[in-house]
Amino acid sequence: MEASALGPARRGRRRTRAAGSLLSRAAILLFISAFLVRVPSSVGHLVRLPRGFRLTKDSVKIVGSTHFPVKVYVMLHQKSPHVLCVTQRLRNAELIDPSFQWHGPKGKIVSVENRTAQITSTGSLVFQNFEESMSGIYTCFLEYKPTVEEIVKRLQLKYAIYAYREPHYYYQFTARYHAAPCNSIYNISFEKKLIQILSKLLLDLSCEISLLKSECHHIKMQRAGLQNELFFTFSVSSLDTEKGPRPCTDHNCEPSKRLFKAKNLIERFFNQQVEILGRRAERLPEIYYIEGTLQMVWINRCFPGYGMNVQQHPKCPECCVICSPGSYNPRDGIHCLQCNSSLVYGAKTCL
Fold this sequence. Notes:
Layout lengths: L1 E4 L19 H11 L25 E4 L5 E6 L6 E6 L8 E9 L2 E2 L8 E3 L5 E3 L8 E10 L7 E13 L2 E11 L6 H17 L5 E15 L3 E14 L16 H23 L10 E2 L5 E7 L4 E2 L12 E3 L4 E2 L8 E2 L13
Parallel strand pairs: 2-4, 3-10
Antiparallel strand pairs: 1-15, 5-6, 5-9, 7-8, 9-10, 10-17, 11-13, 11-14, 11-15, 12-13, 16-17, 18-19
Helix pairs in contact: 1-3
């Protein structure tokens, strides 16, 4: 998880840029006039953007080793790389009368009987639609002659094949507001209206706003006495594109790009509010944003049964790899936890 603290918003009165605004000035004025909210002018930028998690082109064909099992990572429900039944030394060598035989977690693999796992004429193993249950140790038995005169040589190559998924990642925002008395209904009304407007703002991006926590506290301020403050925590996450209000078909549908756009829209929303309020000559309203308290955190989470482990999976460090036997992940945490009684891949409980 990487956090990016947002610096204090700059005070001042600036002209509102009408062009390119997704929330009309009238909508902002309506929101302000209804709830008299004051918010900061700007927020900081994210330190880094999430990377893609798909394997590189160099991993399209994977060779084995006679010394250790070679690890292979296949995205869930996707086609696998070609897993070759040769070592790097034999890959470009001439093999006389080679024969290949593959065995997986469920026994011998026969292409004609298996629609999801296929063995090519050159002995490569390919999965068409990789499922969680396919994760495990796969062994290829290779027999061949280096030359016609030599005797048959036999090799046994092992592969540890893992399903993996992209992480579930989202932004988490926190902010504090000067509030009405903690038992006031105006605080509850403000909370609901704010979430409604933010949700409408992100509607076309297939992103979801979720209020995680809202609390009202009494704060003793130096030279200002006792004040009421609202502490808000809300998240912004991407929905599946097919669940959004409009179908999304181009490269901008990638969750990380949609989330980054959502972050920018939220920044602009707060900027426009402070620009309009900056021209007000009246005293501060009862509910208004406390400058410098807006924080933004970028959070990575893996789905239950999956986890990140740079030491165990150095070639897929930002992948949520299926938990191996002896570990489990019961919730959307980052890592698989140790569980000696777990005997399956992708365990979500420790019995």
